[in-house]
Design a protein that fits this description.
Blueprint (H helix, E strand, L loop, with lengths): L1 H11 L11 H14 L7 H5 L3 H4 L3 E16 L4 E13 L15 E5 L8 E3 L2 E6 L6 E5 L3 E13 L11 E10 L7 E5 L3 H10 L7 E15 L3 E14 L2 H20 L7 H25 L9 H53 L6 H6 L2 H60 L2
Parallel strand pairs: 1-9
Antiparallel strand pairs: 1-2, 2-7, 3-6, 4-8, 5-7, 6-7, 8-11, 10-11
Helix pairs in contact: 6-7, 6-8, 7-8, 8-10
């Protein structure tokens, strides 16, 4: 029963002694009496600083609570998590217990930290550890025979992150507490409060509202073998965080999708092929800028290519294929225009020769032409008109042939292009949001 009260007491950090029935003079006298009763005035090394188990001859239970009060930084490239945490530790020391009724109802007593044995609890994943504030030089003694301390630390811990669903990703990072010297036969480290309580209290005291959201904190006990022989107790805090994706959706995903829509609409541009081609190339260069931005955020050692990389690269490839199709269509149209100009030049030259032949006939045939009848002149005019009509029809057929091929390719590609885009975005949406 008293352990349950102790856990609630330390979790809420209610460091207040019940001395309401004593006046100030009586309370000061009780403090001096308790100070001497605990032997703190003698500064006895054997009583205060030595390991309590030397006297108790039993396994020491170290109670620990860890609360995440802030997520300072998440470095995807370095695969590290920087947090500010509050660690509350309590351990037994039967030499430091007293009957509170004999000391004006005092339940707790503050004493210098360096006078007592403290558990050497370290963090396995720690890359860098600093005190968030100045380290407190005091601990609090509890009349039940426990010593408690509270520290605020700024931790940088290694965290393996899977950025496959970036920026809709969530990660679970471990903070493993373990003694650096004592085995599981000497001390055991157990959780102070349940996972639900730790999560609720962490969210209440959360200081920052940045890119990352704290989802939950799970607590499990484990054991690890050091050098294959010594077993040590471990207390593992699994911190689950989730990214707020709105910034990346607005700055990357929506603009690139808008570029893709512009590329589709460029098929309906009524102008020269050069204008359409330069427009598409501009879109392609714009997407390459976003790829460079992603290169600064995503790690180069990822096991799988993040979906946002597939998204940007896929749209980059689609627009690149669209540019190739535009080049082909422009080539076919230019080929048709070239054929028309060649045929037209040849026909105009032939007509000029025929006209010159009709206007300047040879002298030997001049007398004969004067004697021909009007019927022969009429037949020649009809024949000339028929030849001109046939040649004009052939020219139009040549032009229509190349234009028709270019139009068929353009329409077919547009249908396939829209279908491919729809399938590509649908698959990505399913992988991104519903995995």
């Amino acid at each position: 029963m008293y352990l349950h009260w102790l856990m609630f007491f330390l979790a809420s950090m209610g460091w207040v002694s019940d001395a309401g029935h004593c006046n100030n003079t009586e309370y000061a006298a009780a403090r001096n009496k308790l100070f001497r009763h605990l032997g703190l005035d003698n500064n006895d090394f054997q009583i205060t600083r030595m390991w309590p188990l030397i006297y108790e001859q039993k396994l020491a239970i170290i109670y620990v609570d860890l609360y995440v009060t802030s997520i300072i930084d998440v470095n995807e490239k370095d695969q590290s998590l920087t947090t500010q945490v509050k660690i509350i530790t309590a351990w037994p020391n039967s030499n430091m217990q007293w009957d509170k009724t004999s000391f004006c109802g005092m339940e707790t007593f503050v004493a210098p930290k360096d006078m007592f044995w403290t558990p050497d609890i370290g963090i396995i994943e720690s890359i860098k550890t600093d005190f968030g504030t100045k380290e407190s030089p005091y601990v609090r003694l509890i009349h039940l025979g426990y010593i408690a301390s509270s520290d605020i630390l700024a931790l940088t811990t290694a965290c393996r992150m899977d950025l496959y669903r970036f920026p809709f990703d969530s990660h679970t990072c471990n903070i493993t507490l373990q003694s650096t010297a004592y085995s599981s036969q000497e001390i055991t480290v157990i959780k102070f409060s349940g996972a639900a309580w730790v999560t609720i209290e962490s969210k209440k005291t959360f200081h920052t509202q940045g890119e990352w959201e704290l989802i939950s904190i799970n607590v499990t006990n484990s054991t690890a073998k050091i050098i294959g022989l010594i077993e040590m107790d471990q207390l593992i805090y699994q911190i689950t965080i989730k990214r707020r994706p709105l910034l990346y959706v607005i700055n990357i995903i929506i603009p690139i999708f808008f570029f893709l829509v512009l590329d589709v609409m460029s098929f309906f541009i009524d102008g020269s092929g050069t204008d359409k081609l330069s427009f598409k190339v501009t879109l392609l260069l714009s997407i390459s800028v976003f790829l460079l931005i992603l290169n600064d955020n995503l790690p180069s050692t990822a096991e799988k290519l993040p979906l946002i990389g597939i998204y940007c690269s896929g749209i980059f490839i689609l627009i690149g294929i669209s540019i190739l199709e535009t080049i082909l269509v422009n080539f076919l149209k230019a080929k048709g225009a070239e054929k028309i100009s060649v045929e037209t030049a040849a026909i105009v030259t032939g007509q000029d020769d025929s006209v010159r032949d009709l206007q300047s006939p040879p002298d030997s045939d001049r007398d004969q032409n004067e004697e021909q009848s009007c019927t022969l002149d009429l037949l020649k005019q009809i024949l000339t008109g028929c030849c001109a009509t046939i040649q004009q029809y052939q020219r139009e057929n040549i032009s229509l042939c190349w234009t028709r091929v270019a139009r068929i390719i353009n329409v077919t590609f547009l249908v396939l292009y829209i279908f491919t885009i729809t399938v590509f975005l649908s698959v990505l949406r399913k992988l991104w949001l519903y995995m």
